Automatic annotation (TrEMBL):
InterPro entries: DUF6088. It comes from Epilithonimonas mollis. This is Type IV toxin-antitoxin system AbiEi family antitoxin domain-containing protein. Pfam families: DUF6088.
Length: 199
């Protein structure tokens, strides 16, 4: 009979290197406790890497750098898919994504309609904050981040340069998404975003 450890390894190895797995992904091979123990053994034997609590991977290999850990963003996206939740970057993370801040946030904060939780990844944290559905009703990837970034900067602090950067990004948003999302923004942000609409 094939051991749980081997079944888990087989499943992980069939996936692309760097794919992320959760303890629950292996429950067809045994109960939660048995799976957790098997994963513990595989981590100790260095056959599998524990990326964060309850999240595992066989890491991608770089010829020069060795094993490459998945980025915190990749982990956040993976959790989003698993929970079938919506997430939207906020705060410094939103600014960073738009190039409005060069500061790399230690904590990646996302608003979500999934569970509120904090996932530790090395010395960084991914924080999912529960928010109202209205905050997640945006349908544009770019416009959603723009709204969060501008909220972070604040109405009285936003500079002409920042507005120019934001409008440049919004040129790449589909018009119907932009029109939809403008309605969800605070009034002062609507005024800025409307400038990106092509007549």
């Amino acid at each position: 009979m094939e051991s749980i450890d081997n079944k888990i390894l087989d499943k992980i190895k069939k996936a692309k290197r760097g794919s992320l797995f959760y303890t629950e992904d292996f429950l067809s091979f045994g109960n939660y406790k048995a799976i957790s123990k098997a994963l513990e053994r595989l981590v100790n034997e260095k056959k599998v890497c524990r990326v964060a609590r309850g999240i595992f991977s066989v890491l991608e290999q770089d010829p020069h750098l060795g094993e490459i850990l998945p980025t915190a963003e990749k982990i956040a996206e993976s959790i989003r898919k698993r929970d079938k939740a919506r997430i939207i970057p906020t705060g410094v993370l939103a600014l960073n994504k738009l190039g409005l801040s060069s500061q790399v946030p230690m904590n990646l904060v996302y608003q979500t309609d999934g569970s509120a939780r904090t996932v530790k990844v090395g010395n960084r944290s991914i924080v999912f904050k529960k928010t109202s559905p209205k905050n997640l009703a945006v349908i544009g990837n770019i416009s959603g981040i723009v709204i969060q970034a501008l909220k972070e900067i604040g109405k009285d602090n936003v500079t002409d340069d920042e507005i120019r950067t934001v409008l440049n990004h919004l040129k790449n948003e589909e018009q119907y998404r932009l029109e939809h999302d403008i309605k969800l923004a605070p009034e002062w942000i609507r005024v800025i975003m409307r400038k990106a609409l092509t007549k």
